[in-house]
């Protein structure tokens, strides 16, 4: 007897459905330092393809792609995939471009303001 197992359906790269494992709750991303670095790169350059982000962040490419996927899905929504790139005839065979959403800009601003600043040592003048 052969047992037929149901096929798992993959999430489309173009929709924003949440990443969830077999009917479980959607995965929520807890922001890491690497995520903040990604946000800083996207804040400086408005649109970046995934391989450029990889060059700036210096992380494992496959894990970075999975992380970008998680950050662009529902329950997270920090990164946007601009709709204009889908209009190209070979859109499914090209690297995805990313841009920031305002929630990520706020998170990036909070992270940079919370980081300790270096104090400069200078001579003080007394009159």
The number of E-state strands comes to 3
CATH architecture label name of the domain at 33-113: Orthogonal Bundle
Structural shape: globular
CATH homologous superfamily title of the domain at 33-113: Winged helix-like DNA-binding domain superfamily/Winged helix DNA-binding domain
Q: What value does the average pLDDT take?
A: 78
Order the strands across the largest sheet as they lie in space: 1-3-2
Largest pleated sheet:
3 strands, antiparallel
What is the CATH third-level topology name of the domain at 33-113? Answer: Arc Repressor Mutant, subunit A
| Structural Rg | 20 Å
* Highest-level CATH class of the domain at 33-113: Mainly Alpha
Portion of residues within helices: 25-40%
Cα(first) to Cα(last) distance is 96 Å
Attribute tags:
127 residues, 3 strands, Arc Repressor Mutant, subunit A, three-stranded antiparallel β-sheet, 4 helices, mainly alpha
Describe this structure in words.
The structure is a single chain. The chain is mainly α. It has a domain at 33-113: Arc Repressor Mutant, subunit A (Orthogonal Bundle). Helix content is 35%, strand content 6%. The chain contains 4 helices and 3 strands. The chain has helices at residues 33-44, 50-57, 61-71, 102-114; strands at residues 48-49, 79-80, 97-100. Strands 1-3-2 form a 3-stranded antiparallel beta sheet. Helix 1 (33-44) packs across helix 4 (102-114). The chain is globular. The protein starts with 32 loop residues before the first helix and ends in a 13-residue tail after the last helix. The model has no long low-confidence stretch (mean pLDDT 78).
């Amino acid at each position: 007897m052969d047992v037929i197992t149901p096929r798992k359906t993959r999430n489309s790269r173009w929709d924003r459905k949440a990443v969830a494992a077999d009917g479980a709750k959607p995965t929520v991303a807890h922001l890491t330092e690497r995520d903040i670095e990604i946000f800083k790169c996207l804040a400086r350059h408005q649109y970046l393809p995934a391989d450029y982000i990889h060059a700036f962040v210096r992380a494992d490419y496959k894990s970075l792609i999975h992380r970008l996927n998680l950050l662009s899905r529902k329950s997270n929504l920090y990164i946007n995939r601009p709709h204009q790139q889908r209009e190209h005839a070979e859109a499914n065979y090209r690297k995805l471009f990313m841009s920031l959403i305002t929630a990520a800009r706020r998170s990036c601003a909070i992270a940079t303001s919370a980081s300790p600043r270096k104090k400069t040592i200078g001579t003080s003048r007394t009159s």
